[in-house]
Design brief:
The protein has 220 residues and is of the alpha/beta class. Helices cover 40% and strands 20% of the residues. Helix 6 crosses helix 8. The two termini are 27 Å apart.
Length: 220
């Protein structure tokens, strides 16, 4: 999962980045409205964390522009503007949730998980595919009821595949989900993660669609 944080205050941004990366997300950080606008033109984000009081662009205007362009990623507003008028304006502009500063980082992560569940049309906090079960809150997985030890990016890749098991993801799409700005990625990184998952899940559980990418094995 890849998130965009739009926040100009380093004292807020740095702990948010650390917490969300610890929770397994790839996170990009835009520090002003113009940088955020450019970032949002690349339709790679699963969730946007948006401050409203930004240099170079107002957050409400930025959000409205994003929605008018057809941007569909859930947007969680994180702001010190606690007045009812600001909350109404944010929600009417297209925000999906609203969190007032200062906030607890654990609550932020929980709200992010809830928005991502809602986006994928799920009510359960767990993801399942056959005998495979994932818990995004604890970052734990089981297979046939037994614990499955996964590296952080293995878990993220598997969660992406499980969320839409019929979809074929290209290597580039998976790389966009797993890596943020400035993170070093080797040319065969996705193949390495897929190979590791196949060793743990079974060789035929992740299917290679030649010339296209990867998907999960279909269940009857």
């Amino acid at each position: 999962m890849r998130l965009l944080l739009v926040e100009d205050d380093e004292m807020i941004g740095e702990p948010v980045i650390a917490a969300m990366r610890q929770a397994g997300y790839a996170v990009d950080w835009a520090r002003d409205g113009r940088e955020a606008e450019l970032s949002l033109h690349h339709d790679v984000y699963d969730l946007v964390l948006l401050d409203l009081g930004l240099p170079k662009a107002d957050g409400i205007a930025l959000l409205g522009s994003y929605r008018r362009r057809g941007g569909t990623a859930p947007v969680l507003v994180i702001t010190a503007r606690d007045g009812i008028e600001s909350r109404i304006a944010g929600l009417d502009a297209g925000a999906d949730d609203y969190l007032i500063k200062p906030f607890d980082l654990a609550e932020l992560a929980a709200r992010a998980r809830a928005l991502l569940r809602r986006r994928s049309g799920r009510s359960s906090p767990f993801y399942s595919h056959g005998d495979l079960m994932l818990d995004p809150a604890s970052r734990e997985a089981t297979l046939n009821g037994a614990p499955l030890v996964l590296a952080p990016r293995e878990f993220s890749l598997l969660q992406t595949l499980v969320e839409d098991p019929t979809r074929i993801y290209s290597r580039a799409e998976l790389a966009d989900k797993l890596y943020g700005w400035g993170e070093e990625i080797s040319s065969n990184a996705i193949e390495v993660h897929v190979h590791a998952l196949r060793r743990k899940l079974g060789a035929d559980e992740i299917v290679t669609v030649r010339g296209v990418g990867y998907r999960l094995k279909r269940r009857q």
